[in-house]
Design brief:
The protein is mainly alpha-helical and 218 residues long. The chain contains eleven helices and three strands. The chain has helices spanning 10-24, 30-43, 50-62, 71-85, 97-114, 121-134, 141-150, 166-179, 181-188, 197-205, 211-217; strands at 118-119, 154-157, 160-163. A hairpin with a 2-residue loop joins strand 2 and strand 3. Helix 1 (10-24) packs across helix 2. The N and C termini lie far apart (53 Å). 24% of the residues are buried.
Length: 218
């Protein structure tokens, strides 16, 4: 059974953070950690559920930073958790996160170019398999799809699937922009970037060397 939990109050999150921090010692001050979790929830537009709070606390375990939120880094750490803690049957091979970011970036580019939001499982698998073959990549695409569904990155709408939150599409597309000059030019040409502010945010958050975006801003 799936249970949908109402949003937690600030006091509820404080209690959860305090208990978690007492075991993991993420930060010496519970209040600093609390403000960081609430800020991440707000910036990522996530519901204040216990699962989301715990996910962000686990992210904080990897590398706590109480500075301004870099959403690109937060999402990258969330993906790391999903791909390294999600149960995968022993007879199945867990896909590499960097390879998955690469193929999902290509697929997100495809969706944006075609102005599509929804896709079938069959289309996703056949498209990704074809891309992997052409690029000599070895990924168990069915396991990849199952991980994405299990972690609510994909969700089902009648007979099709879509990314649950737009920021997932924009995050993967930003990774594609970083690696692919043709797609980067496509976004920058004709001021298309103005239609995708999240995409540019994630793109500039990858590293501190996005001079091309800075030149456009100037």
């Amino acid at each position: 059974s799936t249970y949908y939990i109402n949003s937690m109050s600030r006091e509820g999150i404080r209690d959860l953070v305090s208990q978690y921090n007492s075991h993991q010692n993420i930060h010496i001050d519970d209040e600093v950690l609390l403000e960081n979790i609430i800020s991440d929830l707000k910036v990522l537009n996530l519901h204040r559920t216990p699962l989301n709070c715990i996910t962000l606390l686990k992210v904080s375990e990897i590398d706590f930073d109480d500075g301004p939120v870099n959403r690109t880094e937060v999402i990258k750490k969330m993906l790391f958790l999903m791909f390294n803690t999600e149960d995968v049957a022993q007879y199945k091979r867990r896909p590499d996160l960097k390879d998955c970011e690469h193929v999902l970036g290509w697929y997100s580019e495809k969706l944006l170019r075609e102005s599509k939001l929804e896709f079938t499982r069959e289309n996703f698998l056949s498209s990704i398999n074809s891309f992997c073959t052409n690029n000599m990549m070895d990924i168990d695409t069915q396991v990849l799809f199952d991980i994405l569904v299990a972690n609510n990155i994909f969700f089902k709408v009648e007979h099709k699937f879509r990314f649950k939150f737009t920021y997932w599409v924009m995050y993967f597309a930003a990774q594609r922009m970083h690696k692919n000059l043709d797609f980067r030019n496509f976004i920058f040409e004709d001021k298309r970037y103005a239609s995708y502010p999240e995409l540019i945010e994630f793109y500039t958050g990858i590293d501190r060397n996005r001079d091309d975006a800075l030149r456009i801003l100037i």
